[in-house]
Amino acid sequence: AESFLWWRDGVIYQIYPRSFASSSGSGVGDLQGIRSKLPYLQDLGVDAIWLSPIYPSPNVDFGYDVSNYVDIHPDFGSLADFDALTADAHARGIRIVLDLVLNHTSDQHPWFQQARQGRDNPYRDYYLWRDPRPGGGPPNNWQAVFGGSAWEWDEASGQYYYHMFYKQQPDVNWRNPAVRQAMLDVFRFWLERGVDGFRLDVFNLYFKHADLPDNPPKLGLRGYDRQQHLYDNNQPEMMGLLEEIRALLDQYPERYVVGETFDSPAEMAAQYCAPGRLHAAFNFKMLTQGWRPGGYLRAVQEWEHVLSPESWPNYVLNNHDVRRSASRFGRGENDERLKVAAAMLLSLRGTPFLYYGEEIGMRDISLRRSEILDPIGKRYWPFHKGRDGCRAPMQWDASENAGFGAGQPWLPPHPDYTFRNAAAQAEDPDSLLNFYKRLLALRREHAALRQGLFQPLSYEPRAVLGYLRQTQTETLLVALNFRRWPARLVLGGRLAGKRWRLLLSNKRSEAPVPQDGVIALAGEEALILK
Ligand code: TEU
C-alpha cells in the first residue's frame, strides 16, 4: 500500500507556457523559461508538469490550433530545448505531460492546406467535407462551441467543412484509417522522446454520428446551448480507439493519459476511464462549485459513485479556460479560504491538478474590451469576457513584469504582483505558497492521504466538511471550516476518544482535544490530524 505511482499518488501542475517564464525577452514564455523554474517546481513538490500545447500554431486559439504535431513553436524554442527540459525535469523527478489536440488541426496544417485544394486531393478525406443540403445551406444544424454554424462554406470546392470550435480549427475525420495512423504516430513520436503522459483535448468529440443527423432543439442561452448534443460527440467508436491508445502507451513503462471529456455527464467520463482505456478523465465539477462544503462533498460522492473500483479519481480547481479559484471565491486579499480549498484538493482521494499561480493565489486580470485577445471574449463580450483573465504572467517577484522576463508580456501581469508574488510568499511562513508546500510534503509522507479510503464524517453541510483518510495502518482526519466564524466538528464513538496529533493547521500550533466528542474549529480553519 506504500507504493508510489506518479500519476496516481503524485500532483500534476499545469503550465500555460506563454505565461510561465520567458528567457528570451520576447514577452512570451518559453521552454528555457520553464526549465529555469524547475528548482521552484521541485521545491514546491510537484511530480509532473502538464504543458498546454507547445507545437507550431498560428495561435488563433493560442496553441489549441496545431499546425505541426511533431515540432515546437519557435516562440517556445526548439526540439533541442524540449529534450533539455525533459532531461532536467526527469533528473529532478518531474514527469512531462503534453497536451494533444487531436480533434481538430489548425487550418494552416499542411493536411488541411492540401485538403482544401479540391475534392480529389488525397488529403481531402482527412477532414469532414459535405455538400450543401438540398436547396442550399449547411448539411445539418450543428453549432460550433465558439459560435455560429459548425459548417464553413468553401467557395472553391462548393462544399462545407466541419469545425466544432473556430473555423480555423477544422475537425479531422477520425474514421479515415490514414488519420488514425497519423495520430497514433504522434503519440509514438513523443513517447520515443521520453514524454511521460498526455492530456487529450476534447477527445470525446473525435467521432460524430456518421449520418450527421440534426441535433434536437433545447432551451438554452446561446447557439451551442440551444440544442441537445446527441450526435456531435460520444459515439461508440471512441471506446475502441481509447483501448488502442492505451495499448500503445502500455508498451512503455509508467506512461499516463488523461482525457478532457467535453460537456458530458460523469457517467460518460467514467466509461472512458474504465480499465484498459484512459488512466483518467477529468472531472470538472469543482470548477463551477460555489463556496459550500455540501456541494464539494456531493461532487466527490457523485464521482466515486460512477467510477469503476479500478479507476482513479482526479480533482481540479483551476485551468486555462475558467476564472481562477482565487477570483471565484477568494475574499479580498485574505487567503485563508484558499488554504481551506487547497487542503481539500490535496487531501481527497484522487490525483490533484494544480494550475500555475494557484499556489500563490493569483487572481484573474481584468481587461478592457480593446485589450481582449481570446476570440471567445472578442465575440461574446460582455456576456463572456474570454479566458485571458486566468492566463496572465506568473507572478515571480516584485520586479518589472513580475519577474516574468524582459520585454512587454503578451498579457499584462495582475497589478497586485508588487506584493503577491512567489518570492515574497517564500519568505512568509504563513503564506499560501508555504501552505501548499506543507500540504504537498504531507501527501508524500502519508500514504493515507494518497491511497486511503475516503470516509465522510457527519458534518454540518453549510459550514464544515470533515472526512477520514484511512489505510490499514493510519487514520487521518481532515476538517475544513468553510465559514469565517468558529464551527464544531462532531466526532462519534472511538474517534472522539482518540488522542490526535496535529499534522497541519492554518490556525493553531497544537492538536485540539475533543470535548464531549466535539472539535472546535476556528473560522476558515483547515485542520489535518493523525
Ligand atoms: O476546451 C474545451 C472547452 O471546454 C472550452 O472550449 C470551453 O467551452 C470554453 O473554454 C468556454 O469556457 C479545450 C481547451 O481546453 C480550450 O482551451 C480550447 O480552446 C478548446 O478545447 C479547443 O481546442
Write the layout of secondary structure elements.
Elements: H1 6-9, E1 12-15, H2 31-36, H3 38-44, E2 48-51, H4 79-91, E3 95-100, H5 110-115, E4 129-130, E5 151-154, E6 159-162, H6 177-192, E7 197-200, H7 237-249, E8 256-259, H8 266-272, E9 280-281, H9 293-306, E10 314-316, H10 325-329, H11 336-345, E11 351-355, H12 375-380, H13 422-427, H14 432-445, H15 447-451, E12 453-456, E13 464-470, E14 475-481, E15 487-490, H16 493-497, E16 502-505, E17 518-521, E18 526-529
Parallel strand pairs: 1-2, 1-11, 2-3, 3-7, 7-8, 8-9, 10-11
Antiparallel strand pairs: 4-6, 5-6, 12-13, 13-14, 14-18, 15-17, 16-18
Helix pairs in contact: 11-14
This protein binds 1-O-alpha-D-glucopyranosyl-D-fructose.
Protein name: Glycosyl hydrolase family 13 catalytic domain-containing protein
Keywords: Glycosidase, Hydrolase
Family: Belongs to the glycosyl hydrolase 13 family.
Number of domains: 2
Task: Assign the CATH architecture of the largest domain.
Answer: Alpha-Beta Barrel
Mean pLDDT metric: 96
Shape assignment = globular
CATH superfamily of the largest domain: Glycosidases
CATH names the topology of the largest domain as TIM Barrel
Structural description of this entry:
- The model has no long low-confidence stretch (mean pLDDT 96).
- Strand 8, helix 8 and strand 9 form a beta-alpha-beta unit.
- The chain is α/β, with parallel strands linked by helices and 530 residues long.
- 26% of the residues lie in helices and 14% in strands.
- The longest helix is centred in the middle third of the chain and has 16 residues, at 177-192.
- It has helices at 6-9, 31-36, 38-44, 79-91, 110-115, 177-192, 237-249, 266-272, 293-306, 325-329, 336-345, 375-380, 422-427, 432-445, 447-451, 493-497; strands at 12-15, 48-51, 95-100, 129-130, 151-154, 159-162, 197-200, 256-259, 280-281, 314-316, 351-355, 453-456, 464-470, 475-481, 487-490, 502-505, 518-521, 526-529.
- The protein has an eight-stranded parallel sheet. It has a five-stranded antiparallel sheet with strand order 12-13-14-18-16.
- It has two domains: 6-106 and 174-440, TIM Barrel; 452-529, Sandwich (Immunoglobulin-like).
- 1-O-alpha-D-glucopyranosyl-D-fructose (TEU) is lined by residues 61, 64, 101, 145, 165, 201-202, 262, 320-321, 376, 387.
- Belongs to the glycosyl hydrolase 13 family.
- Keywords: Glycosidase, Hydrolase.
- Residues 14-391 form the Glycosyl hydrolase family 13 catalytic domain.
- It comes from Levilinea saccharolytica.
